[in-house]
Write a structure and sequence with these properties.
The structure holds two protein chains of two kinds. Chain A contains six helices and eleven strands. By secondary structure, chain A is α+β, with helices and mostly antiparallel strands. Chain A is elongated, with a radius of gyration of 31 Å. Classes of the chains: A alpha+beta, B mainly alpha. At the A-B interface, strand 4 and helix 4 of A face helix 1, strand 1 and helix 2 of B.
């Protein structure tokens, strides 16, 4: 009589299959994690006029540790530059009105050869360009960084003053922000205050864009850092 | 009156303007050199690979224009 069903011997195939499945799962899990690690994070490239970037790309600072990631990059809001931009523009167009001004005074400056005026003109515009450049560089190098380990506050002004302060996230006592005035509210920038016990001065992020967002990020980082596991 | 005597105050004025201009330009070059030094120094502290070259180039360009202006003024004024 032909056999309709032949039972496979127990204890050989089933455990082997189970073992294989576990191995496969383990391998696939390992692969999944390695894939996750190799996936590029949502990094945001920092450009010339960037003032607020989460997970900034292309920024490094001195004394940065190998496994230290910058999570937040803050400069003063770009709108705070409007004053010097307008002053520079005014200085740039001022010589165009000089002949009209002299005409109204019925005076003349044309008693020297033209080459003198040419040189003075070039020198004047070099001065205006330098005025713009110095103000831009002052804004450009005033940077606040928040990494997964610490806060770095870089202050730079008038070419001769620079001040760098850092503090560990676990030392931060309190984070708050203030946004006072119509212009600050409209352009969404304000002052972020980070209090560190024992420090003579609190860490201040002046005219930071999206201060509420910055405080939220800082707060969650500090909480994570102060959890018992960390 | 001799025309040279007439022109003398003007020549003297031109000379003083030249000296004044060259001095001012020289001081300005020193200032730009300090600016360049500070920009490079700050760039070592915090480096933005996307825009640091622009900042450095602008500083060098301003310094080169300043030096060119000084040399040109030295020759033509």
């Amino acid at each position: 009589m032909p056999d309709i069903f032949i039972a496979e011997p127990k204890g050989e195939v089933v455990p082997k299959e189970t073992k294989t499945t576990f191995e496969e799962r383990a391998i696939s899990k390992q692969k999944l994690f390695s894939d996750e690690e190799s996936l590029p994070e949502s990094r945001n490239p920092v450009h010339l006029f960037s003032a607020f970037k989460k997970n900034p790309d292309g920024v490094t600072f001195r004394d940065q540790e190998k496994n230290e990631k910058i999570l937040l990059f803050i400069r003063r809001s770009f709108i705070t530059n409007i004053k010097w931009i307008l002053i520079g523009l005014l200085l740039a167009i001022l010589p165009l009105f000089l002949p009209l001004f002299l005409k109204s005074l019925q005076a003349s400056l044309l008693f020297l050869p033209i080459k003198f005026y040419l040189m003075l003109g070039i020198f004047y515009y070099l001065f205006v360009a330098t005025f713009w450049y110095i103000n831009f560089v002052t804004w450009y190098f005033n940077i606040d960084l928040v990494t997964d380990k610490r806060i770095v506050d870089i202050n730079f002004s008038n070419l001769v003053y620079k001040d760098i302060a850092t503090t560990e996230l676990s030392f931060v006592h309190d984070v708050s922000f203030s946004q006072v005035g119509a212009i600050r509210t409209f352009f969404d920038y304000g002052t972020v205050l980070i209090q560190v016990p024992g420090a003579t001065d609190a860490f201040i992020f002046e005219s930071s864009p999206q201060p509420e967002n910055a405080v939220q990020i800082l707060d969650s980082l500090i909480r994570k850092k102060n959890e018992p596991d960390n | 009156m001799n025309p040279i005597t007439k022109l003398l105050p003007l020549i003297q004025l031109g000379f003083f303007i030249k000296i004044g201009f060259l001095t001012a330009d020289l001081l300005f070059i020193v200032f730009l050199a300090i600016a360049l030094r500070q920009v490079f120094s700050m760039n070592k502290i915090v480096d933005e690979s996307n825009s640091s070259s622009f900042i450095k180039t602008a500083a060098i360009l301003l310094l080169v224009i300043g030096i060119s202006l000084f040399l040109t003024a030295l020759v033509i004024l």
